[in-house]
Design brief:
The structure is a single chain. This protein is α+β, with helices and mostly antiparallel strands. It has helices at residues 3-9, 14-19, 22-34, 39-46, 50-59, 93-98, 130-137, 146-157, 189-196, and strands spanning 68-72, 79-83, 103-107, 114-118, 167-170, 183-186, 205-206. 37% of the residues lie in helices and 14% in strands. The protein has a 3-stranded antiparallel sheet. Strands 1-2 form a two-stranded antiparallel sheet. α4 (39-46) packs across α5. The chain is elongated.
Length: 211
């Protein structure tokens, strides 16, 4: 029997018509994926392998794990979205960490909004959101100047044996102000960032002592 004649014998409705027509099959896979079904479940329903399901979704620019569902945080009870393939119980790392330690209510440094944080971390600055955090970090005082950074290292090296991992810090955040009272040296970039976050890390060299 000719191929054209075989096509005329195929049913035009039901699962068989979908599976014998590549366009209908792909459309059905996309539809089922959009309803939240995993690739393995779609494969069981249509009799296809997970590799074939992934291939079709990729061809249609759909990630198999792109479907998200709404959940309630196990700590703060706020709703959040999570990928269906992820066993997430908390809305953030903060809630995940606080759930296992003693928590305390603190006020945001910028807007005074109450937030829950670990009670043991008293030295860290507290922010309720990324917006408040960046409003402090980008307060208009910071002036980036690579040439100023190089000059600062050259100036400090005359008074202190700088190592490659050491970081020269400008206290007023103006990299063009290379006066000694404005310069500090931290042992590493990690200590430098911790100082900006208010953790109490002290510099290993302070230019104010050399004025």
């Amino acid at each position: 029997m000719q191929t054209g004649q075989m096509k005329n014998l195929r049913p035009i409705t039901g699962l068989m018509s979908i599976m014998t027509n590549s366009l209908l099959r792909d459309a059905e896979i996309v539809r089922l994926s959009n309803t939240g079904l995993k690739g393995s479940e779609i494969g069981r329903r249509l009799g296809l392998t997970r590799a074939r399901i992934s291939q079709v979704l990729k061809r249609n620019r759909i990630r198999p794990t792109s479907f998200k569902e709404s959940r309630l945080c196990a700590f703060c009870q706020r709703p959040f979205l999570a990928y269906r393939s992820q066993p997430r119980k908390f809305c953030s790392r903060a809630c995940s960490g606080i759930s296992t330690v003693r928590a305390a209510e603190k006020a945001c440094e910028v807007c005074s909004k109450p937030v829950i944080r670990q009670a043991s971390k008293k030295s860290r600055r507290t922010f309720c959101s990324r917006e408040c955090y960046h409003s402090v970090r980008q307060d208009g005082r910071y002036r980036q100047n690579r040439q100023g950074q190089r000059r600062a290292r050259a100036i400090v090296s005359k008074c202190f044996p700088l190592e490659p991992q050491h970081v020269v810090h400008h206290e007023d955040r103006d990299n063009t102000n290379n006066s000694l009272p404005n310069l500090r040296v931290f042992a590493s970039q990690a200590d430098h960032m911790a100082y900006h976050h208010g953790s109490g890390v002290q510099p290993i060299w302070d230019g104010r002592a050399h004025v």
